TrEMBL record:
SUPFAM superfamilies: Protease propeptides/inhibitors. Signal peptide: none annotated. This is Inhibitor I9 domain-containing protein. Residues 42-81 form the Inhibitor I9 domain. It comes from Salix suchowensis. InterPro entries: S8pro/Inhibitor_I9.
Length: 84
């Protein structure tokens, strides 16, 4: 995600309450981005990542392209797949 001053402000609060607030803020932010960009029910968010303000989501290539052009998105990368 692009630079977010609210994320930086909350991240600097190293208390247990601050960690909870950051988790909730980012999860809500990521959910809103997905809901505003992709069709409801067409994706599965698996995790929000606090340390980098990012998330993992199961989507199609077309959906990845839509996210790439969404306001506030810095980069969309495909997970690396390892052979069994």
């Amino acid at each position: 995600m692009d630079y977010d001053p609210e994320y930086e402000r909350i991240r600097n609060d190293r208390t247990k309450r601050g960690a909870y607030e950051l988790d909730m803020y980012l999860s809500r932010k990521h959910d809103e981005l997905l809901a505003n960009t992709l069709e409801h029910g067409s994706y599965k968010k698996t995790i929000s990542l606090i340390i980098v303000d990012g998330f993992a989501v199961e989507i199609t290539e077309d959906q990845a392209n839509a996210l790439r052009s969404a306001n506030g998105v810095r980069v969309v990368e495909k997970n690396q797949e390892f052979p069994n």
